[in-house]
What does this fold into?
Amino acid sequence: MNNIKQKSEYCLNCKLKPCSLKGCPLNNDIPTFIKQIKEEKYIDAFYTLTNTTVLFSICGRICPHKKQCEGACVRGLKGNSVSIGELEAFVGDYAIKNNLKISSEVSTKLNKTKVAVIGGGPAGLTCSAYLAKKGIDVTIYEKYSFLGGLLMYGIPDFRLSKDIVKNTIDKILELGINVKYNQKLGENLKLEELIKKYDYIVLTFGANISTKMGIDGENIAGVYGGNELLESKNHPDYKGKTVIINGGGNVAMDTARTIKRLGAESVKIVYRRSKEQMPAEEKEINDAKNEGIEFLFQNNIVKINGTNKVESVELIKTKLVKKEGDERLSPVNIEGSNYTIKTDYIVMALGSKTDILVEKLGLDLDNKKNIKINDRYQTSNPKIYAGGDVRGGYKTVAWAARDGRNIAEEILKNIT
It folds into this structure.
């Protein structure tokens, strides 16, 4: 506790709040809740945070703080940033330990409105919470027998305790949210039936299909998608094997560290840009290095070799050049720099896309097969909203949660 108070006292309580207004996707009132920690008003800090988020125990642990709130911290200009993530997690853990309840302002005129939320991940949980706080009758339809989405299946236990996730979800459900488990859209759950039953429908079921490169050999046995491995946990036997992970985000780091812990002899991460351009949080990169994972920066996979299974991979070195219109340097293959590495498995962790089921919903899609929305988060059917990864955008927990909260606010505008 003394350590937390000391870290809170490092905050300058800036009036301009760059950490909140520029750095935090949810615009959490960071200076205020930290000031309340300084004053040991932990319950007040909890209620300050619940104005904008219901996932603080989680976001405090897994958000890319250095790229978001802590990256915008004034103290970071000349030294270390305030430990905003750690302080946020402290408040969330304090609330769980002391059984603090998320406050609600139930309006009797709203409780006749019925909303179905499809998907119980960060966006769906947040949307449900902010609707239920106002008295809306909310039902979450979840394809698994548990809630949390990628918080449960996409982020390894060593990075995010599942007890923390469960406790956070329990706090949200205390608002009176209904949940129907093992309901998969397009199978035992039909959108047309929900349209008849509910006033509004919110689609937040994510986008967890791994993107492919479109190179020779990508369909050989032994090539996996990082998202699918983390979700299904259906891993091959890695003991004594060499595994190459292709990608530079947190999925690549999580997959690499998971595979290393499952006994792989050698795990290499291939990334076509430099370390400085990696989208993964610096802490995750450093943790991976410390666990013995090798990084091959400015390398690009051009071909996968093998007959019945993966035998090797052909790479080419890249150089970074400035292209007109690009915000960052672009990787360009260096002709003649090809070389081959023997490997047993390859994992593609280059990003994700939506499931093919979105093409069967009868809604307009963009050119990347994401569900198209307007500036009010409505799809081509104004009764149906979409947010989080299923509509594209920034694919982080905080940004998905922001979508969920925004959708709740838009629905509330319609009925108040």
Q: What stands out?
A: The domain at 2-97 is CATH 1.10.1060.10 (Fumarate Reductase Iron-sulfur Protein; Chain B, domain 2). Residues 367 and 392 are 11 Å apart (CA to CA).
